[in-house]
Amino acid sequence: MTITPTPPEHQGQDVCLACACEATPRPNDDRGLERELKALADPARLRLLRIIAAHPGGRACICQLTEPLGLTQPTISHHMRLLAESGFVTRERRGKWVYYTIMPEALADLARRLTDLAASGTESHVSVCASSGAAG
After folding, report:
1. How far apart are the first and last CA of the chain?
2. Neighbours of 61 (CB within 10 A)
3. Residue 129 included in any domain
4. Is residue 128 part of a domain?
5. Would the pLDDT of 3 be above 70?
6. Which domain holds residue 48?
7. Tally of domains within the chain
8. Which ranges in the chain belong to alpha helices (H)?
9. CA distance linking residue 126 with residue 136, whole number of Å
10. pLDDT at residue 6, rounded to an integer
11. Cα 118 to chain center, whole Å?
């Protein structure tokens, strides 16, 4: 690795001020992650996922989701639509009832991507700081 000299404006500083991200991510790279995080950011949706996961087979009828949260069925349906669009649950209609099944692999994939992001952020910080001559 080639270490470049510390820029004059950063010489004598103990803190790496030059660690601004050199490679700005493309907006399309983060849209899926952003949508998924927004879906999980709502407390009602997190509770819905927990309730579904607690049911046998990770599957629950919409009728089993309204009472525990104290929300109306249309509000629950709205939250469940967002969770389904984000891939965290699947939706299956049986007559007049809709059943939702949790998708643990989608949650595991999100966890993996966040772990990768944290790891790459750490590596980028060390790399950028090392190339600027500061310690990371």
Report:
1. 15
2. 14
3. no
4. no
5. no
6. 30-103
7. 1
8. 27-41, 43-54, 66-69, 73-85, 104-132
9. 5
10. 63
11. 12
CATH of residue 70 = 1.10.10.10
Cα distances (Å, whole numbers) of residue 48 to 95, 106, 107, 111: 22, 15, 14, 19
Q: Is residue 89 part of a domain?
A: yes
Residue type, 34: E
Instruction: Yes or no: say if 76 and 66 are a contact pair by the CB < 8 Å rule.
Output: yes
Determine the longest span between alpha carbons in the chain, in angstroms.
71
Q: Which phi and psi (to 5°) does residue 89 adopt?
A: -140, 155
Q: Would you say 99 and 59 are in contact if contact means Cβ atoms under 8 Å apart?
A: yes
- The residues, ordered by sequence, that sit 6+ positions from 130 with a Cβ below 8 Å of its Cβ are 1, 3, 136
Residue 79 belongs to a domain: yes
Res. 125: pLDDT tops 50: no
* pLDDT tens profile 101-114: 999 999 999 999 99
Give, as one character, the DSSP assignment of residue 88: S
Task: Give the pLDDT confidence of 36-93 residue by residue, as tens digits.
Answer: 999 999 999 999 999 999 999 999 999 999 999 999 999 999 999 999 999 999 999 9
Q: Nearest 5°: phi and psi at 102?
A: -70, 145
